[in-house]
Design goal:
Radius of gyration of chain B: 21 Å
Shape of chain A: elongated
Distance between the termini of chain B: 38 Å
Strand content of chain B: 25-35%
Structural class of chain A: alpha+beta
Chains: A alpha+beta (361), B alpha+beta (352), C alpha+beta (340)
Helix content of chain A: 25-40%
Structural class of chain B: alpha+beta
Strand order of the largest sheet of chain A: 1-2-12-3-13-16-14-15
CATH superfamily of the largest domain in chain B: Zn peptidases
CATH class of the largest domain in chain B: Alpha Beta
Distance between the termini of chain A: 46 Å
Order of helices and strands of chain B: HHEEEEEEEHEEEEHEHEEEEHEHEEH
Oligomer: heterotrimer
Largest interface: A-B, 27 and 30 residues
Number of helices of chain A: 10
Number of helices of chain B: 8
Number of domains of chain A: 2
CATH architecture of the largest domain in chain B: 3-Layer(aba) Sandwich
Largest sheet of chain A: 8 strands, mixed
Largest sheet of chain B: 8 strands, mixed
CATH topology of the largest domain in chain A: Aminopeptidase
Number of strands of chain A: 17
Strand order of the largest sheet of chain B: 1-2-12-3-13-18-14-17
Helix content of chain B: 25-40%
CATH topology of the largest domain in chain B: Aminopeptidase
Radius of gyration of chain A: 22 Å
Amino acid sequence: MFENLRALAEKICAVPSVSGFEGAFADLVCSLLEGSVEQARRDRLGNVIAAREGRGGKKLNLLFEAHMDQIGLIITKIEENGVIRFSNIGGINPLTLFGKRVKVFGKETFFGVIGMKPPHIAAEEELSAVETLDKLYIDAGSRTRMESERLVSVGDVALLDYHSSALSGDHFASSGLDDKAGVLTLLSCAGLLGAMKAYHDVTFLFSVQEEVGLRGAKVGGYTLAPDAAVVCDVTFGDPMGDSRGTVPEIVTGKGPAISKGPGYYPPLVKRLCEIAKREDIPVQEEIEAAPGGTDAFVIQTAKRGVYTGGISVPLRYMHSQTEIINLKDVYRASKLLALLAMEEDPLGNGDVKGEKARGSG
Amino acid sequence: MEAVELLKRYSNHRAAAGDEEELRAAIRGDVKETVDDVSVNPLGNLTAVRRGKDGEKSILVTAHMDEVAFMVKAVEKSGLIRMYAVGGISPKVLVGNQVLVGRDRKPGVIAYRSYHLMTPQERKKIPEIKELAIDVGAGSSEEVRDVGPGDYAYFMSEFFAQGDCYFGKAFDDRAGCAALTWLLGEYGGETRPEVTVVATYTAQEEVGLRGGQTAGFGLRNVLFNLNLEGTTCSDRELKTSYTPITVSGAGPAITFMDRTSVTNRKLFEFVTGVAQKRGIPYQLKKGVAGGTDAGAVALTGEGIPAVTISLPIRYIHAPWGIANRSDFDNYLALADAIVGESPGFGARGAKT
Amino acid sequence: MDFKGKEFLFSAFGVSGREDCVRERIASHAGRLVDEILNDATGSLICVKKGKNHGRKKIMLSAHMDTIGFVVTYIDERGFLRFSEVGGQPEAYLLGKRVVFESGTIGVIGTEKAEYLKNLKKDKMFIDIGARDAGEAGKLVRIGDTCAVHAPAVQTGGVITGGWIDDRIGCFVLLEVLERVGEHPHDLLFVFSSQEEVGLRGAKTSAYKLEPDIGLVVDVTDSSDLPEGEITGSSAMGKGAAIKVMDGSVIVQRDLVDYLCALAEKYGIPYQRDVLRHGGTDTHEIQLSRGGVIAGGVSIPTRYIHSAGEMCAEADVQACVDLTTKFCLEENNPFLGEFF
């Protein structure tokens, strides 16, 4: 049923987008948007900004956002014996590194392995230790520093190697689904709006460098200062998560999670829930008692403040190289966004002219 | 309106980050007759503007509306309610408190096992908030259907005066809000301030100075920001640290530095100068921990010199705070004096 | 390396938020060489030197003039001063150090009990100015006064070592560039930023104010070459100007990194690519100002940062001066073309 979405997911997951090096991925996003938006441009940090005009009389300026970047590695040193030292870009979980194959984007693209002592000779403590990243190294087979320097320079980036796979029940596994799931949502929404014709002006912001400090969204939010924004990121959908059988868990396949808390404007949150109920779109609820963790945090305080909402695709095994989402949830999220762009009063506060949002009312 | 009346009413109101409407509405009702313009921004900040005789220049006076409180995480099948803290609350002050939950203000208790049933090790350990629950007396989740995740719960404490002290919750920062409303009242009717007073009651300070980050945006010709706060007063605790931060009875505390700002030197000297000139007792905040909206405002746009004056409050961020009556009076007097003397700062200039 | 006329950079007081002394000295030194001097609300000093081109752009060159230090929070009855740090410093760097106040008053950092030597904590330390009681202390120092470790930098065997290298050496580089740059195409905004050590604050407000077209920050970076040391970054003392690829607060646009490396190659300036695993610099605030700015860094690899014995190589300082100067002089800077 979600063939097209799966094919699109495979396409975007095939292009790496380590924070700070999103260029090639941004090119792909722009080409995929052709036909669905009036114009797509890049700002100075590399964010993709694509606008779609609405047909309504009293239009608001809505912003739908997701981040393009994923976590990765950066080369810090090449040792005399040829091994390659590295550091992290974004929150890398050291547990995911030992013994893995990496793809290094050096002078050319090549493979290496993160060296690990085998169990036969490693001491007990070594097997249970979680080393800090500066103690690990990538082995590309070179035996001298010169050999390695022909392949790579300090400052080049690398990624844990991965494959994309379709799993059962419309689940999809790949690397970087945080937040390619959000990108997929926005691309799908742009497609839907093409057919459905939005009432309001919609700007899609594909941000850079979220994983290293919400940086792209900060400048994007400043430039665009919309009447309202909805941020599409991912949230924890792990089956063995924070559960004591008492707290409702967010799970994959039960719909996108609508964020609730001080970081989100209550009438907008309510409006999203109402639309979901009305249209029979299954959604879940995510309570965030303290703002933070996604681009919504910096968009909400752009300039005089922005009415912000958040919808997240549930995702398992975040920041490992095999994250899992459910394509049903992506489709539902994109539909919810498209429907919001068609509501006359999307903010749910009667501010149909955007006067309250822009401070003139 | 009497300032202590305002302090009483405001501290009894319930407002936390993202749920400030009850207090915002009350403040709006109090100020709308005395000011020229009232607006609310997307973060929930309430801004009341009283234009001054000098049409050009203005000062920004801030106080935050939110108190530390709880948010419902989930309602268990048993009817017990699990919660998060909204803002910084030490786990030490939680067990046994009475709280009010949800829109309907359902009374409840923060529950933990009876002392008699605890092991000797458990008796020595402060439970974390995730080990606690609120008990509203329900036998099952069916009985608490009207309470859900995202609802707020507040300390139940109610204001009273005793001796020369005021007791109540949320003096951080209802003292600031009360002072700000009282100040606006001083400039109602025929009286206008020398320079325009932009009074912003900020939202969501306790979860990261959120409202404060938007408070300074778009303002022109702002001489400085006066931030009205409440701060730690540790003059009674067992001495673990050399400094009490502030001392009760010594007057409002002026901040020279904290983790979000170094007070502009000229502004600091101006404020202490005003206090000395008018004979208002004051102290310095003898510690640099913590952050306030002044830090956020100071870095807005091209920057606005900002200073915080605080009411010393014993047992801040807990269900019961204690403030000294004369400290409160001097706090109001200092705020009033600074506003009154503000053109003097403008003449010498805000540039360092 | 000749510091003549600029030695004041290593002796003029200027702890974060209280940079008045050093600001005044820099302003009077630079004043005769620039077209305009501005201040910003956070205390940064901005020296503007106009370019000669029609349609010229704005290049913001930034170094921070504040140093780390301490602030007095309490004076006890016997005249001992309790303090908090201004800017992050490990406890081990504090004990036994001489400190100097803006007024010139000297003190020493001590700790309460000998047993604390094994487990240093800042709240168990104090500053001793030799006063006999609070009254005597109060005549010399007030609560809220700041002080900094007193370790005037010296030159020896091709290195410069002492306190305040971070980032007075960057200020030195900017003043050197200012003296050499002569006629140049674009406007040069030399920003001596304030309050960097407590949160990159001066850079934030001055970048917002100036709206530069490009920014280049001159700061120190880790020299990750100690014996048996951890790898904190990719740069080492003596290997040239550290062209910033990334630090804990910024990932420099790759095009700018490549451009700076090519520029260094072109003019035979020794350089290295600088990846720092942690740390924050003014580059962050410039890059994220308003709608975003292309921003990079040229840094001096330094050992023992935030100690009284910071150490850097004269040759690296010279390389930074040369590279930054060339950057300002290049006519066809691709980042300052019309299409940007």
